[in-house]
């Protein structure tokens, strides 16, 4: 932040604007404050005073979210990320702290697990579900933009692992309808397999019969498809520990048997054994269409086996598709 005394016609220090705008929000004029946050921060961006624009947008996003103005807060949060890109700010601890501070202000709305929890008040249920959906959409949009920024400005290629964990956590605990595939996709790009294990154990306690082993197997195979054997093993060990400490049942199924054998097989150069496992457990793996594709990716990562080209065997149509650049 600039310490220079502002000359006539120049922008004042951002802190003055922040204090002025916070008063407008505290008075309940959320819409008016929103327009001011956007127009004032845009002036700082135009003057290339990006750090101060970020301070204003972060403050605005946090205070609007704190007052339950999710749509306004999410819009300012997205503008915050846009400004990170415009100012070419690197992915580092300081910026990550700012992203996390905004994330922590997104509301957590208790959604009833059963319709009976609200009695006959279906209108209240509808409003609660609508509010939860708005929160998840706003938070997801902000964090996905932040992941994209981080990947471009210094994070690993898949985006900041810390932000992936934030997104996975919010999607799981705050979504009215949990999509475990999407939740898992973000956790495996994160850096916290123990938290992922806790989430899966929580899911085991409320999912339909037969979904628990599918969720665990999918998580392990996703890690392995990224070449991450270490976190796949940590995940399995942690799930078993937590299940034991909570006196729950670890799923006993052919699929879990396959996963245990697979983790041992990948520790050695044993591609024939890998193929034998796939063959022996084919009917079990067919429970989830995505498993075979993930196993193809695992074969490529661990044994250097190129994946089958889906265009092979398509004859002339395959050739035409290739010529059109479809591959």
Identify the overall geometry: elongated
Separate helix tally? 16
Topology as a string of helices (H) and strands (E) = HHHHHHHHHHHHHHHH
Number of E-state strands: 0
End-to-end C-alpha gap: 49 Å
Overall residue-averaged pLDDT value: 89
Portion of residues in helices? Answer: 55-70%
Rg, please? 24 Å
Uncertain runs: 1-8, 311-327
Instruction: Tell me the fraction of residues in β-strands, as a range.
Output: under 5%
The computed structural class is mainly alpha
Biggest pleated-sheet summary: none
Pfam family, one: GET4
Family: Belongs to the GET4 family.
Protein name: Golgi to ER traffic protein 4 homolog
Organism: Rubus argutus (Southern blackberry)
């Amino acid at each position: 932040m600039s310490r220079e005394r502002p000359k006539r016609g120049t922008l004042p220090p951002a802190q003055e604007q922040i204090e002025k705008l916070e008063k407008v929000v505290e008075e309940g004029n959320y819409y008016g404050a929103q327009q001011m946050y956007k127009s004032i921060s845009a002036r700082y961006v135009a003057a290339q005073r990006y750090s101060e624009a970020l301070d204003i947008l972060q403050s605005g996003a946090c205070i609007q979210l704190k007052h339950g103005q999710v749509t306004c807060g999410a819009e300012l949060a997205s503008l915050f990320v846009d400004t990170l890109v415009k100012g070419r700010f690197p992915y580092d601890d300081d910026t990550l702290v700012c992203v996390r501070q905004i994330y922590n202000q997104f509301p957590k709305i208790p959604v009833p697990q059963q319709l009976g929890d609200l009695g006959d008040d279906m209108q209240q249920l509808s409003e609660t579900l609508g509010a939860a959906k708005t929160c998840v959409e706003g938070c997801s949009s902000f964090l996905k933009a932040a992941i994209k920024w981080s990947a471009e400005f210094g994070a690993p290629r898949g985006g900041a692992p810390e932000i992936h964990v934030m997104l996975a956590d919010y999607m799981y605990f705050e979504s009215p309808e949990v999509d475990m595939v999407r939740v898992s996709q973000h956790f495996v790009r994160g850096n916290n397999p123990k938290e992922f294990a806790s989430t899966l154990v929580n899911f085991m306690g409320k999912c339909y019969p037969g979904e628990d082993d599918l969720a665990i197997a999918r998580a392990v195979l996703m890690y392995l498809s990224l070449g991450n054997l270490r976190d796949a093993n940590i995940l399995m060990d942690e799930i078993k520990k937590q299940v034991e400490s909570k006196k729950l049942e670890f799923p006993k199924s052919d699929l879990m048997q396959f996963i245990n054998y697979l983790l041992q097989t990948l520790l050695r150069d044993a591609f024939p054994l890998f193929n034998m496992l796939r063959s022996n457990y084919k009917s079990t793996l067919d429970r989830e269409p995505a498993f075979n594709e993930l196993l193809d990716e695992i074969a490529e990562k661990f044994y250097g086996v190129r994946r089958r080209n889906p265009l092979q065997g398509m004859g002339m149509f395959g050739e035409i598709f290739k010529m059109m650049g479809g591959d």
